[in-house]
Amino acid sequence: WPKAPSAPEGREGPQAPRRDTTGGKGARTQQWLLLAVNKFDADRKRMSVLVREPDELGGRILLLMKGADNKMLDVCSHSTLYHVAAIQDHLVRFAKEGLRTLVLGYRFVPEAEFKSWFVKFDKASKAVEGRSEALKNAALDVEKDILLAGATAIEDRLQDEVPETIASLAPAGVKLWILTGDKRETAENIGLSARVLRPEMDIQVLRDGTPDQVHAQIKALYDTIVS
């Protein structure tokens, strides 16, 4: 686990989960008990697991979570808000480099809270009707007050000759689209590296909004192009 960042004066920073740092000949195996898994879904855009640490570490229950930056930052603890801006700066830089990002977080879950929550989770996992919604609601109940551990950035390289193949299709009048759930900066970078986008293009961006707002944006862009 990364070292918890220093907090501003007068505020206590988050404490990272302890781990066994014994190495070399003294290395030993630890057994962590998996208690529950909150699987990824398209609404939450994150997943989490609950585990119990070994007795020699205290036997506490730990929630470990990873997911999309906006969904992770929505549930982070106020005690970590002071370094959210720094993480966001890194995420934007990673995205501009075409890297796919994830934010990591954790929190210790009190025993009483876990027991109460697990009743709801177990009931949801056995539900015959509305199971997906029940599991999502159970996950939302426990995925809160998260302490940020950091962010990861992974390069997803294009396959060989993808840019050359796409470049040869464009002169034939083939219309090419990229559909992705990545951040806009990542999508633009991949579009350029794959040659779906070219530096000389005038790239227009439609911002999020209601259907009427998006329609108005499209109309404004169309009027600009044909005028």
UniProtKB/TrEMBL annotation:
This is P-type phospholipid transporter. GO terms for biological process: phospholipid translocation. Pfam families: Cation_ATPase (PF13246). Residues 1-27 are annotated as: Disordered. InterPro entries: ATPase_P-typ_cyto_dom_N, HAD-like_sf, HAD_sf. GO terms for molecular function: ATPase-coupled intramembrane lipid transporter activity; nucleotide binding. GO terms for cellular component: plasma membrane. It comes from the Eukaryota. PANTHER family: PHOSPHOLIPID-TRANSPORTING ATPASE (PTHR24092:SF218), PROBABLE PHOSPHOLIPID-TRANSPORTING ATPASE (PTHR24092). Residues 9-22 have a biased composition (Basic and acidic residues). The lineage of its organism: Eukaryota, Sar, Stramenopiles, Ochrophyta, Pinguiophyceae.
